[in-house]
Write a structure and sequence with these properties.
By secondary structure, the chain is mainly α. The protein folds into 2 domains: 1-138, no CATH class; 150-303, Up-down Bundle (Four Helix Bundle (Hemerythrin (Met), subunit A)), CATH 1.20.120. The chain contains 9 helices and no strands. The longest helix has 37 residues, at 260-296.
Length: 317
């Protein structure tokens, strides 16, 4: 493995998380149209950042930084990484961040249409997923993971984790649509609120079931147990933040402007949702890593050297 590449991939993933927070701050402050033009702001590269322009142009600056970091990451990957599928994922990351930037510009040009704004928020989560995956695939723990055997007749852990991941992604789409469906001085659509609450129940059951199953079957395997504990802990926090965000948002139409309690709790809810998503991604990818080898060839369990030949492993230069 290349430790420098792994550390830089982690840096890009952290920058992407910060970008998601910056985007949530724009929406919560209703600052999406603080400037009518794009990619410039009021016709300038560095305008005077006052009022809502601070949030909107600040978001653009963070996005630009993440885009440049992604370009550097791809170059780093192409120079040092020999696994073809990791190189392709690096290319996909660059395409995703470019598409994300274009969608961001489109939301301004089209005056924040719901479909485009929701797509912009959803793609941000997918891009975050991609950068986190690159950090996982270039890590030592991924390269050195050993195969495990699942209990006979039990439900496949990779399957349970995948179902939880799909449920979370659908919930993120519902959440993005709900957030962009009304400004701070309007009431949220009842139908979307009900759908989001139902989605929360499904996510709780799916992720709770997957994480507790991991802890019940493989509590001594830190490779799986750690992301399971993190995902479960974040899920509990997210549920409380969801209730708090709803209660503060419920009163916001009567406020003269977006107030800090509503903004802070809502942004925390978005950020924690992203962390629940990526912790489940880590759990899912690791589950496939240690169980897929067994499914492909049980003989691998008694021959750890096979790991070095797996399509998931790092090939020597």
């Amino acid at each position: 493995m290349n430790r420098g590449l792994n550390r830089f991939a982690i840096l890009v993933a952290c920058a992407t998380f910060f970008l998601i927070i910056a985007g949530a701050l724009v929406t919560s402050h209703d600052a999406g149209l603080a400037t009518p033009d794009w990619p410039l702001s009021n016709g300038q590269v560095f305008p005077k950042m006052v009022g809502n322009l601070f949030w909107e142009h600040g978001h653009r600056m963070v996005a630009t930084t993440v885009g440049m970091l992604t370009i550097v990451l791809l170059i780093y990957i192409l120079k040092t990484e020999h696994r073809t599928w990791v190189r392709k994922l690096g290319v996909f990351a660059l395409l995703a961040v470019v598409a994300q930037g274009l969608l961001g510009g489109l939301t301004v040009k089209l005056m924040l249409p719901l479909a485009v704004s929701s797509a912009h928020a959803t793609l941000a989560q997918l891009f975050f997923c991609t950068t986190v995956s690159l950090a996982i695939f270039t890590s030592r723990s991924w390269i050195e993971a050993r195969p495990l055997r699942e209990d006979e007749g039990s439900v496949s852990l990779p399957y349970l984790c995948t179902m939880a991941l799909i449920a979370i992604f659908v919930q993120l789409i519902l959440g993005a649509t709900l957030r962009h469906s009304a400004t701070w001085d309007q009431h949220l659509p009842t139908g979307l609120i009900v759908a989001h609450i139902c989605g929360a129940v499904v996510v709780t059951l799916a992720l709770g079931g997957a994480a507790t199953t991991v802890l019940r079957r493989h509590k001594d395997e830190k490779f799986l147990a750690r992301p399971a504990v993190v995902a479960l802990s974040l899920l509990i926090v997210q549920l409380f933040l969801g209730v708090a965000a709803y209660l503060t948002r419920l009163a916001s139409p009567g406020d003269p402007q977006p107030l800090n309690p509503m903004v802070g709790i809502t942004v925390a809810h978005v950020a924690c949702g992203a962390l629940v998503f990526v912790s489940t991604i880590v759990l899912t990818l690791r589950a496939y890593r240690v169980f897929r080898i067994h499914e492909m060839n049980p003989a691998n369990l008694v021959n750890p050297e096979i790991l070095s030949k797996s399509e998931f492993s790092e090939r020597p230069a």
